[in-house]
Design a protein that fits this description.
Layout lengths: L3 E5 L9 H9 L2 E7 L3 H13 L3 E7 L6 H11 L5 E7 L9 H15 L4 E4 L2 H6 L7
Parallel strand pairs: 1-2, 2-3, 3-4, 4-5
Amino acid sequence: MTTRAIDINTLGGAVPPEHVIRCWKGAGVTKVIVGAQNPATAAYITQTLGAFGISCDLYVYMLFQRDPTLRVRDILDRAPWANVGRLWLDYEQENYGLSQETIRAHIRAAVAACGDFPHGIYTRRGWWADVAGDATE
């Protein structure tokens, strides 16, 4: 079965209007990955989408300047978990001259901070190859 999904951020605080949600459903979208930047907005969006039968995941944009453990724990402690199946660790930032090993250590720490909560890494192929060194661990 193919899952049709989209992602949206919550920085603007906007909740998709009902006609947009109906359009997504009509296009076969069954999952929305919601940015966890604004937990209150993310909670409202995940509840609203759940009422339309659309499941949700959350993503957190990972920054190398921030402690990955604290960033993930903060999201896990504050995020809305009703109608949310997984937390995606969004790695897309430039490496700012950091070594691939330093970047991989950052990723390992973020993954470890997720504990037993379902999680995954969300990135693009070129980033993974160039910045993370095509890590397979």
